[in-house]
Design goal:
Layout lengths: L8 H31 L4 E8 L6 H16 L1 H7 L7 E8 L5 E10 L2 H12 L12 H12 L7 E8 L9 H7 L6 E8 L10 H15 L8 E4 L5 H23 L11 H5 L16
Parallel strand pairs: 1-2, 1-4, 4-5, 5-6
Antiparallel strand pairs: 2-3
Helix pairs in contact: 2-4, 2-8, 3-8, 5-6
């Protein structure tokens, strides 16, 4: 059996002299890695899915598309999107109807400044409707959005926003997509429910929206602090979208300032937990949107 060389005063001295060099090299590597990660920080990956099924006519389609564009251009939403230049929001917009129809209107764009945001808004406004199946596959839209968000696991927050004016009638049940999604993915699903915009008696509208909202709460939304925003018809879409975006974006920005760290929030708190009971935080400054 080989004998190990004895530990001498000279060998201890050599190790002691070399250790600071090795330690410094390791420390420098860690600092550089941390700096690189910080430089590539992403505050939130946000993908918005718009319902273009058969229940949405051409006028409603334009109100939805233009309402989203106007909401992104709203001064309060702009300020929230641009609040943390060192950790920008990544934005994507798609439309959906049947289980075989998902169309990307805005590919993933990093909103690093006013020019990037204006470019995204211009691209959205310039999109044109294409023929889509009339059915409504909410579960498939959820799965598509979650798959898109999975590509941005480094972002502190990942949020899927689904707009819809009806219940799913094709494809997997939304609740089954919820159950199949891993709870560790960290993605939150919020919804914007659009009430029917027909010549109903005013008293009947809240009941219809309440029923649809209850469906989305039970079947679609998921994650800590997930919520349903409502719009009374597509004429009300812009106001509702402004409110929803502010609730999401301001909550995350505030939570980052409060905790002063980076990385994903824990499942038991964080951004959504702060805003869930604080409606005032999401109020837009433009009073005209509330009328």
């Amino acid at each position: 059996m080989d004998r190990q060389p004895p530990v001498t005063a000279r060998s201890v001295s050599v190790f002691s002299a070399a250790f600071p060099v090795v330690f410094s090299a390791i420390l420098l590597a860690l600092v550089l890695a941390t700096s690189a990660a910080a430089g590539a920080a992403c505050r939130q990956a946000l993908t918005l899915g718009l319902d273009v099924s058969g229940s949405v006519d051409d006028a409603e389609y334009r109100l939805q598309r233009d309402g989203l564009a106007a909401a992104l251009a709203h001064p309060d939403v702009r300020a929230a999107l641009l609040a943390m230049p060192s950790a920008p929001v990544r934005l994507q917009i798609f439309e959906w109807s049947s289980r075989n129809f998902q169309r990307i209107l805005l590919p993933w764009a990093e909103i690093t400044g006013p020019e990037a945001l204006d470019s995204a808004i211009t691209r959205l406004r310039g999109s044109r409707r294409v023929a889509a199946p009339s059915t409504t596959a909410l579960g498939t839209a959820m799965r598509f959005g979650l798959d898109q968000l999975a590509r941005h696991s480094a972002c502190w927050e990942r949020t899927l926003d689904l707009s819809g004016d009806g219940q799913s009638n094709e494809g997997p049940r939304p609740r089954s997509v919820q159950a199949a999604a891993s709870p560790g993915t960290g993605a939150t699903i919020n919804a914007l429910v659009v009430g029917t915009d027909t010549a109903q008696a005013e008293i009947s509208r809240p009941a219809g929206i309440a029923e649809l909202s209850a469906y989305f709460r039970a079947e679609v939304i998921r994650g800590p602090g997930a919520f349903v925003e409502t719009a009374i018809g597509f004429d009300d879409y812009e106001r509702a979208m402004v409110r929803k975006l502010l609730r999401e974006l301001r909550a995350l920005a505030l939570s980052r300032l409060l905790v002063g760290g980076s990385g994903s929030r824990s499942s038991g708190g964080g951004a959504a937990g702060i805003v869930a009971g604080d409606e005032a935080m999401a109020e837009p400054s433009d009073r005209r949107l509330r009328q």
